[in-house]
Write a structure and sequence with these properties.
It is a single chain. With 159 residues, the protein is an all-alpha fold. It is built from 5 helices and no strands. It has helices at 2-13, 31-71, 76-85, 90-131, 139-158. Helix 2 (31-71) crosses helix 3 (76-85) and helix 3 (76-85) crosses helix 4 (90-131). It is elongated, with a radius of gyration of 29 Å.
């Protein structure tokens, strides 16, 4: 009897979920406790929905700010003012703009690094193919690779 009470207690405090994320009840639960588990399942669903809508709102603010920074080429201060105008506090607006600036800088740096790698490969490959005296001069690959490497180096250093 004690074991059954303990299992009942554990099911009420820490309900288990099936493979679909739904709380499940075992047949040994009395109908009153089954109602409690259904209520807990409903509460979990409501909390998940509230958390999802909060994440959606935050993502909308980030998308709005990113659009202003990247596409409209607005300054950080202009974006912060626009976010405050949409109802955010100044500290939240600062945090969003700062996080976006860090991500934009990292993306530009990564893009520059990739351009440098591919540019070097094209340039070196064109030079090796030309020196190997296959019968062709691979000026296009050499010039394109050099240009891409320089563009990557500039982007990497500006980020």
């Amino acid at each position: 009897m004690f074991s059954m009470r303990l299992r009942l207690f554990l099911w009420i405090i820490v309900p288990h979920e099936d493979t679909h994320g739904q709380l499940v009840a075992q047949s040994f639960l009395p109908s009153g406790h089954l109602f409690l588990l259904k209520a807990m399942n409903h509460l979990k669903t409501v909390m998940d929905n509230q958390q999802g809508s909060a994440n959606t709102a935050v993502n909308e603010y980030y998308d709005f700010a990113a659009n202003l920074l990247v596409n409209d080429k607005k300054t950080s201060k202009d974006v912060q003012i626009a976010l405050v105008g949409k109802g955010l506090s100044e500290s939240a607006a600062y945090t969003i703009v700062h996080n976006l600036e860090v991500e934009i800088k990292n993306a530009r740096k990564e893009s520059g690094r990739k351009d440098m790698i591919y540019g070097a490969l094209w340039c070196i490959g064109g030079t090796v193919a030309t020196v190997a005296n296959i019968g062709f001069i691979f000026w296009g690959a050499i010039v394109f690779g050099g240009f891409q490497f320089i563009k990557g180096a500039i982007n990497y250093n500006q980020a």
